[in-house]
Amino acid sequence: MTAVGPRLVGPRWVWRRWHSAVSRTAHGRHSYQIRQDSSRPAEGGVVPLTACGRPQHRRQHTEASHRVEVELKRLDGEDGGIVEVVMCRFKARNAMGHVFVSQLRELVSTLSSDSSVRVIVFRSLVPGVFCAGADLKERALMNNSESDLFVHGLRSLMTQIASLPMPTIAAIDGFALGGGLELALACDLRTAACSAQMGLIETTRGLLPGAGGSQRLPRMVGVTLAKELIFTGKRVGGQTALEMGLVNRAVEQNPTGDAAYREALSLAREILPQAPFAVQMAKEAINKGIEVDIGSAMAIERMCYARNGY
Questions:
Q1: Which entry of 64, 92, 95, 134 is annotated as an active-site residue?
Q2: Among this protein's residues, is 245 annotated catalytic?
Q3: What is the C-alpha to C-alpha distance for residues 51 and 35, in angstroms, rounded to an integer?
Q4: Which of 39, 57, 58, 103 is 20 to 30 A away from residue 283, measured at CA?
């Protein structure tokens, strides 16, 4: 980028011709790389919002998009019907960058219409980390409009997760901060290791929760407690999170660092034998009913009960 300054010196039409040539070259290279790897999933071809006018950043993103940062694991045997969404962006502690979000969005979209899926467990393979939140390094490269679009995309992704028809469980074996906790809040249930750390810490960064946390946390733990947690940016451990109703179960961490995942799997196995459509209708009745007055909520319950059959 340091070479750009000297090239701007001179007649304006010269700079325009140079900039046009660079742009065509960059776009051509990006297109070529996508065609060469056309067997990859669709997310490999996503161009980041920050790529505009930054050929070097575009090349880096194309290379990064070839890495698997989120993947699916379908269990079999007696656990058939349980699917794990596995976060594995090791170098960035599962920070939510463009590639991570794109891959997660595609997997969630696939699962939403898969009738064979009975329970979904969101877990991390990164030791000591569930999800560190939004990728602040990528965000630093964005202008205001790009940042707004990116945060809107995160908010939309969390809504997509919350709208999945089957039960979802977040296994929090380590840090779940900012957007990482917002991801866990978008799930129906949460298990946590006592050593885990959770918090909506955005105010300590001069921000506020923007992916649903300011709305889902009050509905979960109450308005006054949610305000305290958000205003102070406080982090809480697994046992404290259990006491305030932020998680369903808290367990001591084990030597392999996956105690919350093991507990989430145990919880999923408790759900698995139950009638799948009845569980889905119960989830819909609860999620929709909590947003309206009690009379309307009863009507929603009646509708879901009827759809399930008498």
A1: 134
A2: no
A3: 19
A4: 103
pLDDT in tens, 125-155: 999 999 998 887 887 888 888 888 888 999 9
Q: How far apart are CA 131 and CA 148, in angstroms?
A: 21
Whether 42 is catalytic: no
**Which listed residue (179, 199, 212, 213) is catalytic?**
179
Does residue 40 carry a pLDDT above 60?
A: no
What is the per-residue pLDDT across 215-226, written as a single tens digit (0 to 9) for each?
A: 999 999 999 999
Contact of 34 with 43, CB cutoff 8 Å: no
Q: Are 167 and 189 in contact (CB under 8 A)?
A: yes
> Active site includes 202?
yes
All residues at 6 or more sequence positions from 268 whose CB lies less than 8 Å from its CB, including other chains: 79, 82, 119, 121, 167, 169
> Does the annotation mark 268 as catalytic?
no
